[in-house]
């Protein structure tokens, strides 16, 4: 019963790989994460290339690969699977491939509850197309398809437990996770500013602050609507979710679009500058990943 808040896509993929290969379930989980990481990198590259250039696409992938919590990309977590679906859904939206975007978003809704942010991106982008009378019935189809996976799983849990709010009830009961509008995040931030806290709290604070700056840059530079909606919604969900302040940086990992202003800036810089920046980021990512793996006692 405590496992019900886990959305089914990642466990299902792991079970499928374990069933058709000689590998154990833990190894199968790693294989799924690694393969999904490659698909995610490809999708991130596609988004960056579509918006700017191949150079920006490559830099965007490299930035995502050296995030402070990048070690999670090599663990049995859902981040890589979800990021892959996000990247290709956003790419489809940018190319106005409505049915592809809707179907990918449907699948993403079976991966993580934060798929609600991707559903918002698909739905609102489709709404704009409807108002402008663009692309006929396809935006309507995307808007209808996009939430079906997410809502379907919530409905299944509700039916199984006999209450409409079953998923959120289980999440709060067993994991102490809910949406409090940022109250818990503000309390943790106050702790960071007024008393000694673990290193992971400082890193999360730094990443949340950087995310605010990057969102402002996305808006000022008028990036496409799907990227703005998804990035802003994902940030709000991340800070609005109670508890687990130390993991806020990991929560933000699928919001790779936030890295676009940095990727564009680095693409315009001198090669020596770019190499220096990435050398520093690789060292920081490796050091912090080691800390999370060997010293930190809780989830990364």
From TrEMBL:
Compartment(s) of residence: Endoplasmic reticulum membrane
InterPro entries per record: PIG-V/Gpi18
GO annotation terms (biological process): GPI anchor biosynthetic process
Key word Glycosyltransferase present: yes
Cellular component GO terms held in the UniProt record: membrane
Membrane spanning residue stretches: 42-67, 100-128, 140-159, 199-220, 227-245, 251-267, 274-296
Glycosyltransferase found in the keyword field: yes
One term of GO molecular function: GPI mannosyltransferase activity
Keywords, comma-separated and alphabetical: Endoplasmic reticulum, Glycosyltransferase, GPI-anchor biosynthesis, Membrane, Transferase, Transmembrane, Transmembrane helix
Listed pathway(s): Glycolipid biosynthesis; glycosylphosphatidylinositol-anchor biosynthesis
Membrane topology category: Multi-pass membrane protein
Main location as per UniProt: endoplasmic reticulum
PANTHER family: GPI MANNOSYLTRANSFERASE 2
Name of this protein: Uncharacterized protein
Lineage, opening ranks: Bacteria, Bacillati, Actinomycetota, Actinomycetes, Micromonosporales
């Amino acid at each position: 019963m405590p496992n019900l808040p886990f959305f089914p896509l990642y466990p299902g993929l792991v079970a499928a790989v374990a069933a058709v290969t000689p590998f154990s379930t833990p190894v199968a989980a790693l294989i799924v994460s690694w393969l999904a990481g490659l698909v995610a990198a490809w999708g991130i590259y596609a988004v960056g290339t579509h918006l700017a250039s191949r150079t920006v696409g490559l830099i965007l992938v490299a930035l995502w690969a050296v995030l402070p919590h990048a070690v999670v990309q090599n663990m049995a977590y859902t981040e890589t699977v979800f990021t892959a679906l996000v990247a290709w859904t956003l790419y489809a939206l940018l190319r106005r491939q409505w049915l592809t975007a809707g179907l990918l978003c449907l699948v993403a809704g079976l991966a993580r509850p934060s798929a609600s942010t991707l559903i918002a991106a698909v739905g609102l982008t489709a709404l704009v197309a409807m108002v402008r009378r663009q692309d006929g019935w396809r935006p309507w189809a995307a808007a209808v398809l996009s939430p079906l996976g997410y809502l379907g799983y919530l409905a299944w849990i509700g039916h199984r437990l006999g209450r409409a709010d079953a998923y959120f009830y289980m999440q709060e009961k067993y994991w102490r996770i809910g949406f409090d509008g940022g109250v818990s995040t503000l309390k943790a931030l106050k702790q960071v500013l007024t008393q000694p806290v673990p290193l992971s709290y400082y890193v999360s604070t730094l990443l949340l602050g950087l995310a605010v700056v990057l969102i402002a840059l996305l808006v000022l530079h008028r990036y496409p609507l799907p990227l703005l909606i998804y990035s802003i919604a994902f940030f709000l969900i991340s800070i609005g979710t109670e508890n687990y302040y130390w993991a806020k940086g990991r929560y933000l990992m699928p919001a790779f679009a936030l890295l676009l202003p940095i990727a564009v800036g680095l693409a315009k810089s001198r090669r020596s500058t770019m190499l220096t920046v990435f050398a520093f980021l690789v060292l920081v990512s490796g050091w912090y990943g080691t800390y999370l793996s060997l010293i930190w006692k809780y989830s990364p």
